[in-house]
Structure prediction request, 71 residues.
Amino acid sequence: VYAIPPTTGEGEPRLEGIDSGTGKRTYLGAGLYPKPSPDGRWIAFVQGQNQSRQLWLMRSDGTQKKPLTQV
Prediction:
């Protein structure tokens, strides 16, 4: 899992995953600083800009996104 900077200089970076067997890339959503759980089932990441950044959690396939913090 990694973050790709926006190509236009605007918007949020993209979170993508790579299948280690096929090399296929999968778009998982927008965000920063992805960290997979030890078992690989979940990914914690930051979403938002400036003072409105929040910590989020999603399944490793990009589903079941939910905020963990609210500012």
In short: The chain is about 0% helix and 45% strand. Residues 46 and 55 are 5 Å apart (CA to CA). The mean pLDDT is 87. The two ends are 26 Å apart (CA to CA).
